[in-house]
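Changelog-adjacent note: as of this version, every example in the card shows the full chain rather than a window. The one below runs 371 residues end to end.
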Amino acid sequence: MRDVIDQLEGWWRDGRPAALATVVGTFRSAPRQPGASMLVGSAGEAVGSVSGGCVEGAVYELGQQVLADERPVLQRYGVSDDDAFAVGLTCGGILDVFVEKVTPQTYDQLGRIAAAIRDEEPVAVATVVAGPSELLGSRLVVWPDRTEGGTGSDRIDDAVRDDVRGLLDSGRNATLTYGVNGERRGEGLQVFVESFAPPPRMIVFGAIDFAAAVARIGSFLGFRVTVCDARPVFATASRFPGANEVVVEWPHRYLQAESDAGRVDQRTALCVLTHDPKFDVPLLEVALRLPEVGYIGAMGSRRTHDDRLERLRERGVTEAEIERMSSPIGLDLGARTPEETAVSIAAEMIAQHWGGAGARLADREGPIHTS
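Full-length structure tokens:
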């Protein structure tokens, strides 16, 4: 919903009904992830995408149906000999799409959700997408410190609230399954949770030309990017237009302070590009001992890498801690320029996050997406 929230909120404030179609489940090589959304407006508009073009026509028609009869629908789109080029997915994947009518009466929390997303305040929406008809489409909106709405069942709401907060902490979307009375080990009730956590952080250490390229690609991938360097002559906002902020501070002190303040978590990416031991060794000593960091990469030649390892071991950094570091940073793409190197680093981060091998897809067999 994040991609279409501005349009949806505008229609909502004008009192114009819209059908909101959301991907709530994917299987095999589905083209988009859970949370991808498409709107069908009351005047026939279509905004957003749930599949990149494969099933949008069928979802559009379903949206018009939901606008007319006001009943939410969970629809599965797959591939078969008959419908592969009509309403199926030519990639061989399967999508579960939930379509609901949105008006100020049916979704009174929408304005507050939209404000939270704009303000980067964590919020999650848990919607019943399958189960008893009287529960279908009911939703619980969860902030870290409060909730709104609900299913009408305190037992269901209690179970959902606790699970949703765990998903919100990690910024994950998921479909949760319960018994129809909220039993955690039961079946019959499916609740889709869409988490709107603040953007994950990327902290780039070293105000060099490679850092400018990494900051740009980090922003493109949806990170909130900070560039940090102890040298004020180089660490200037004008040199790093792709960064959200530029900080002049010794890198290890800045990272420790950010961690102590709770602003470093399992979604944070740390890119150490200084390849200068007086900066990167104290910094990596701090980074490798943090309990939760999503990615730690350090730039440097093989000689720099070997020297760095020796210095870290002298400081008591363990082999298990060193294993958390990607050094030299990036995948082997043959990169030369700062921009190519930034792509290499981003590729490694993506592969690590999703468990990819970094190999050519043309050389592999089987499905492209394994999860």
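Structural remarks: The two ends are 22 Å apart (CA to CA).
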